[in-house]
Endonuclease/exonuclease/phosphatase domain-containing protein (Chryseobacterium ginsengisoli), 235 residues
Amino acid sequence: MISLNAKNGNLGVKNIESFVNAQKADVVLLQEYGGNRDYHFEGLKRFPDTAIVAVFSKFKIIQHKGLVKSNFDHTNVYVSQTDIDVNGNICRFINVHLQPFRFEKKMINLGENDKQGEEKLKNIVKRLIPVFKIHQDEVANVKKAVENSPYPVILAGDFNSVPNSYEYYHLLNGMQDCFVEAGKGSATSFHDYKFPIRIDYIFASKSIKPISYKVDRSVKISDHFPVIATFKLEK
């Protein structure tokens, strides 16, 4: 499977299509795919969704619904839940895009003097606090969907949170971080700032065995690198 924040396809829908088709993925989860974008992935059918998250699968989709809507635009689903029949094994895929902080690069640079830095820091804090509160509600809804699932769960997407965060630890509880289990090297995925950070993840129920996990840094089809994982499902 592939999980990718597509940056609304701004760096080229065709580039994303070429990458995904070369991987021959069975399931693709996109975040920020762009509501008016029309992706054509070979052998994959898309389940209609809103402008934020989209699911593509070569397997039969049993059920699909939105879990979390934007606090600012209730027509946009930020988290979706899709039950997919993978060769007789039903698995619940939860596609996550937690509310973004909407930082700009110039905000991260605190400025040349103390006054500029202090003012920018205040603006950062003003953005952080309300988004953290939104994340608490979003995380609670996702956790409920995981805990109530009758099927094994793969939870993936853009958490807009680093690994030592509230969001990471609460969503990981009862799950496994597939990078920790099967990955190598660094899992940093967002590369638009000077220093790359890890905010994209794939978690799985403990009954699912991660075989491989890779952040593909060879392509720049978005401000996020694609995250690719393979799994073994037991009958």
